[in-house]
Amino acid sequence: GYFLVLGSLVILVHQFFGELALATPDLKRLPGFAKFHLGNKGEKIAYLSSTLGIFGAILAYLIVGGEFLTELLSPFFGGGNLVWTLFYFSLGAILIFFGIKAISKVEFWGLVLFFIILIAIFFREQPFLKLENLFPAPDFAYLFLPYGAILFSLWGVTLIPEVEEMLKERKKLLKMIIPISILIPIFVYLFFIYLVLGITGPKTTETALTGLRAVLGDGIVSLTLLFGLLTTFTSFTTLGLTLKKIFWYDLKMDKNLAWLITCFVPLILFLIGVRQFIPVIVFIGGVMLGIDGILILLMYRKINPKQILVYPLLLILFGGIIYQIIYFLK
């Protein structure tokens, strides 16, 4: 149910942003779009929401990616979580420095290996799946808690300008690519939830994959950790490149300074103790991405004022922001 409702919302917001991207001069990211369509106030809000949101997302992928790499390699080479997180960070920072072509290659092969590993888990671990694990007793006190996490998992607005640049003379394909690129993750996430929750049930851990070791043993868990590592690493690098370009293109910052700020702010947050994955993604998804979505809808209303779907979507996103803020203030 969550994925049906929020998936539809995400597809619509992304489609609207795709239309905005095609109607706006190139070499802009969200703050640049906001200035073009909403003026200086919109630009300032977009700078705040997009930079804080992407910083938070990069931090989240650094946290979970470092955990996966530690679980995967520490048994063989030693070293604690800090060592392997710094190694993960270093590889990502190098790719962010060199840019889009290198990252696109990593993403492609990461996606291929992702599907291979997921299918292998499905066929090998059928005996461990328990259907009763998929239907735990509902706790209505937390009915809306998954909102921020699901929005975070499906959101890809920051990548749309990147895709537009990659398409070059074939930009009209953007409208077809956007819904497909969201529907595929929805089905994959549902399949992944079915596998992990069906296998581990109430023993499911915060990062999902690390809790599989006690049930499945080292072999298959190494495959799942490799899958998790690849998917988080590609997200870490693509979002890092996007934030670097916000500073570089929109703020007219020096390219190397933009890279330093992009990479090292999340690292500093990690080093001073911000290391809880779920709270980070819930807050970023519910609040910062909600603000981004509202800005996109307000911009879209400028180029297509007759689109009535904008208004219910605005209410949902605004309500989500209020809920997440109240939840974190409790």
Automatic annotation (TrEMBL):
Protein name per its UniProtKB record: Amino acid permease
UniProt keyword list: Membrane, Transmembrane, Transmembrane helix
Record bears the keyword Membrane: yes
Organism: Candidatus Nealsonbacteria bacterium CG_4_10_14_0_2_um_filter_37_10
Superkingdom, natural source: Bacteria
Residues spanning the membrane: 6-24, 45-64, 76-99, 106-123, 143-161, 173-199, 219-244, 256-274, 280-300, 309-329
